[in-house]
């Protein structure tokens, strides 16, 4: 806006407009440095306006963003507006390092310096980390550290690139009073693996369980990265750069500069494991893009079904049981032996083993009396007991020793996983489940030990059930497994019932304790 010749009355009106609307203030009076265009007015793109408004509408907000979205600069403009028009307000900005902390303040100082004189209150402190105004308001930018949280009491707290901040758990614990007394908090970050503070807080925000409002933006919303009608002036300008930039080529060009994992985390904002994924990244990308969301549900969304049983088709159901007490998950998959297609999936951490058995028996009978293969480790023995003795399910898979189910050891676990990976890679099986693919995205090779495992705070129950299903699928196609027969069978009593009524379970501290499981078997 041309403001050098404004009358006193016009200045008053403009001041009120700026005070009442952060959008208006930034669009009309903030200048930023663009990497190609130099110093330019900060013309907000629609997705940036959306972020700004949601940060103002919600006291606690957390943003998952893509790389180079301009969000740190946006927050700098918001912070300056916050202190310009409100007396005695303190804004605290927490960055991952000192260079990032001083960079934020330098952007704010540039914005302040480019304001017209009637929007510039005098400063009382102006250095690399602080901008303080004569109205009593100030912005302080700090690098992260163990003690950083103790001095972050503020009217507005901005945590920039939270997923990369060391000691963020300790810092957040100390910041509690800021949120409990009415302070506003804006958290923003690109994703950086899973199990960290940002991942937990964002996931809880999506669930609505921690008071934060979750915001997610996609790179396709950025007009410089994806074509949008109405921005022809921008695309003409981009063509004039040296070298020219064609917005329609941006994705192809940018993908070539990054690995699959980097692209998925930094631009698609997917929370991935910290190690190298066990299944190749490009395969995972394809699986993710082709997840089948056209399913129907049973048992309160615990079971998802993509295809009803087909006449004359045979099916395998492989199950990985848990105790059903909010710890690990009980899971099973149903695969069509005819074509390797995943047709159904069950996933729950709140289903007791006896109920799990009833569901397996019912669904297996529905799917043409499917071949059922439970894992017989630990609690799996109890599952087998219920299926065979209580529910009298007639098509339980046996190994060559005529033991029901499959006993998974560290040695054959690696073989099962390798078999699964080979079948996925060679397209012998078809995965429909997004839940399974999400587990595969966090199923990694530990860079220090070389072990294959789920990343921190993640699970592999769906993976192990699927690996078993694929293994039995292959065996059944070569007829090397034995069906359970009624003749000559004695009553099956699993070792866990023969020898004891206790079951080893993990506690929240990682220790083992024993729980009495008589309630599971009605004794």
Short description:
37% of the residues lie in helices and 19% in strands. It is of the alpha/beta class.
Write structural notes for this entry.
With 523 residues, the chain is an alpha/beta fold. Helix 4 crosses helix 5 (98-113). Mean pLDDT is 87; it is low at 485-490, 492-510 and 518-523. It is elongated. It has an 8-stranded mixed sheet, sandwiched between helices. Strands 12-13-16-15-14-17 form a 6-stranded mixed sheet. A hairpin with a 4-residue loop joins strand 12 and strand 13 (303-305). The protein has 3 domains: 20-212, 3-Layer(aba) Sandwich (Rossmann fold); 218-271, no CATH class; 276-485, Nucleotidyltransferase, domain 5 (2-Layer Sandwich), CATH 3.30.420.240. The chain has 18 helices and 23 strands. The longest helix has 17 residues, at 461-477. Helix content is 37%, strand content 19%.
Can you identify the CATH class of the largest domain?
Alpha Beta
How confident overall, as mean pLDDT? 87
**Number of separate strands:** 23
**What characterizes the major β-sheet?**
8 strands, mixed
Helix content: 25-40%
Q: Structural class given helices, strands, pairing?
A: alpha/beta
CATH topology of the largest domain: Nucleotidyltransferase, domain 5
Which CATH architecture of the largest domain is right? 2-Layer Sandwich
Number of discrete helical segments: 18
Task: Please state roughly what percent of the residues sit in beta strands, choosing from under 5%, 5-15%, 15-25%, 25-35%, 35-45% or over 45%.
Answer: 15-25%
Enumerate the strands of the largest sheet in spatial order, edge to edge or round the barrel. Answer: 5-6-7-4-8-9-3-10
